[in-house]
Amino acid sequence: MKPTCFRNPIATILVSDPEHDKDVMAPSIASFSSRGPNPLTPDILKPDLTAPGVDILAAWSPVAPPSESFYKDTRSVKYNIISGTSMSCPHVSGAAAYLKAAHPSWSAAAIKSALMTTATVLDSKKHADLEFAYGSGQINPLKAVNPGLIFDASEADYINFLCKQGYDSTTLRIITGDKNSSCGSTKPGKAWDLNYPSFSLQLEDGQEIKAEFTRTVTNVGSPNSTYIIASFSPLSTITVSVSPSTLSFSSVGEKKSFTVKVTGPKISQQPIISGSIVLSDGVHKVRAPLAVYTFLPGSVYISSSASQNKKRFKGSSSYHRNRMLRHT
User: Fold this and answer.
1) Torsion angle in degrees (nearest 10) through CA of 155, 158, 164, 169
2) Cα–Cα distance list, 221 to 19, 209, 261, 282, 295 (Å)
3) Residue 325 pLDDT more than 90?
4) Fewer CB within 10 A of the terminal residue: the chain, N end or C end?
5) What's the pLDDT tens digit per position in 231-253?
6) pLDDT at 20
7) Per-residue confidence (pLDDT) for residue 297, from 0 to 100
8) Is the pLDDT higher at 87 or at 6?
């Protein structure tokens, strides 16, 4: 016979109080959360975002066993506590649905942009891998509802992106399902003009720093507003310039473009240099991370903090684990 405490379990959920939080390491990215850079398209910074993903209480299919012992565990439960991207993804999906309800006409790219540019920036001192660990930061759905500006992208933008990735018209049509899709005269090259809310510059070790990104933002905030664009250079030896330095809008839905140039000397053995581009009108703060890193031809990037984070996770308290994040 099972004890009464097992037949009628009782749990207490306490509200977190950041001001009195004794766990100085929280929140942080879980050790098992995979890191960047993007192995397929280095010109796009990955991950995009982070969200709660460790020890998450959620609904569970009663026909699935609550443990990994698929054949031996015959229990049936309605809820379970698990960890992984499968937990952080629902958080972000729910936030995306929340934004779609508030802005039915927004595209998927616009929703992604709003979530990324308003994300809470995580403490770089806790993460040796910087943006390769947390991307733009932790989602903040409330701020994302009113981002001020969005980096939108159309189907044509992504077709141009795929063509620059080396797709020909035949493979392109398989993806689009449109027999009229064509790469035309577009040649393979860098994806620096894809209207993505982040910037990624991969350099071969010993290569000179030189890149130019183009971006277009759409005003979804105040009809009459002026945004000042500031760049936070990763290192004093690297120059990040933005042109124009201000963007003025006179209506909602108006679009403005700007260019980001990154220049500097040759760099070697530099895994990641972190910076950002911030557009602000005094009310909204639109932030896009910038990552510059080198690679050795034929090598694979290995996280410099994987083992350190693993030890930290193993020895952390249950409360700490509850505040650890997974990327998405």
Assistant:
1) -40
2) 31, 35, 26, 12, 40
3) no
4) N
5) 887 777 889 999 999 999 999 99
6) 61
7) 78
8) 87
Reported pTM: 0.85
Helices and strands (DSSP H and E) totals, the chain: 9, 14
How do beta strands 324-327 and 273-280 pair? unpaired
Question: Could you tell me the CATH number of the domain that includes residue 285?
Answer: 2.60.40.2310
Does the residue 143 lie in any domain?
yes
How many domains does the structure of the chain reveal? Answer: 1
Residue 214: name the closest of 274, 159, 151, 275 by CA. Answer: 151
Domain for residue 96, yes or no?
Answer: yes
Encoded tokens for 51: 């969200």
pLDDT number for residue 200: 96
Question: Would residue 199 count as lying in a domain?
Answer: yes
Residue 24 inside a domain? The answer is no
